[in-house]
Amino acid sequence: MLPPRPAFSLDRLGSVIAILIGIALFAAPFATYRATRIASGEARLLIEALPISMGAVVAAVALGVAVGSVLVREPLGRLGLAVIGLAILLPSLGLSAGFLTPAGNSFARVSPSLGFWLLALSFSLLAIDAFARMKLDPYGRLAALAAGVSALAFLLVSGIWDDLSILKEYHTRADSFWREARQHLLLAFGSMAAACLVGIPLGIAGHRMRTLRTAVLQGLSIVQTIPSIALFGLLMAPLGAIAASVPLAAALGIRGIGATPAFIALFLYALLPIVANTIAGLNQVPAAVVDAARGMGMSARQRLMQIEMPLALPVILAGIRIVLVQNLGLATVAALIGGGGFGSFVFQGIGQTAIDLVLLGAIPTVGLSFAASIILDSLVDIAKGALA
């Protein structure tokens, strides 16, 4: 017989969350004040970064969430605690910026500090745990993502965060931000689309021919082992030579530096997951199903398009998910060779010791990767459900 379950027990993840909240409230600074964008920062605890009444409300809510995360086990209850915590925390950051910035001072900068990030992490972990316990279907996950994006968009449009340093960096670079955003998406999605156009047929051919499969997978595996900076460097010399000797290539924008070597490198990195997953997806199609289709008189092309590819689609989509998340991150490095994208802000910020400029490039990259992962995971589950 199993030993009786204790009548009272503490939630393990909730205990970790409670510890993080305690550190955020009593040991870590909530915000950092700088006299200028590159000046040394002055750390401010929660009680110093907000008016007394607002600070007390945030602290009380955070402590309530800490206790609830340990004691409450019902998914809806945990989700409610996380939503309340985030609903109080996120606006309070904007209020903190307005409180700490002297009136009429356009040079001062206020940035979120460790305490804020720990509170945001704690409440987000609680929400993710609640969603995991609820076992949401793919449409529920997409709805939750849409709700989160809508809430962030409301905060941005409302202007409550306008006094934050990262928003001040954005307002001075709004035109270049959206230009680099388009470039980042073009590099990531364009290279993924090109890899799909080449990789899926190559995977189909590799599924049919064992010799080709071995050679292709080994070659692409070698490409994956090359660091991104090294691959960019390897592509610069031949592309520069082509641009110098072929005027038409130079007119089309093919150069040793810029977007072209970045696009080709991302394309090469994207091939292995797509080719490998296409082969794996086709390999898992039951032989009995293929034999039945053959017995019905279907041609090889009909079997491929109507039977094998639909059954392999969830595995292929999983490969595309890997590629998209990978490319969104790697596209940041393209800025080192003039490829543009959000990496431009990251490396400018590093060079100027301006952490908020770094965040202006890093946060959208992380957000895009997170959203792409949820969306494509949901599409994989939808595809699996359609085949069930």
TrEMBL record:
Stored InterPro entries: ABC_transp_perm/SBD, MetI-like, MetI-like_sf
Protein's cellular compartments: Cell membrane
Keywords: Membrane, Transmembrane, Transmembrane helix, Transport
GO CC field: plasma membrane
Source organism superkingdom: Bacteria
Family per similarity comment: Belongs to the binding-protein-dependent transport system permease family.
PANTHER family attached to this UniProt entry: GLYCINE BETAINE UPTAKE SYSTEM PERMEASE PROTEIN YEHY (PTHR30177:SF30), GLYCINE BETAINE/L-PROLINE TRANSPORT SYSTEM PERMEASE PROTEIN PROW (PTHR30177)
Protein name per its UniProtKB record: ABC transporter permease
Organism encoding this protein: Microvirga vignae
Lineage of origin: Bacteria, Pseudomonadati, Pseudomonadota, Alphaproteobacteria, Hyphomicrobiales
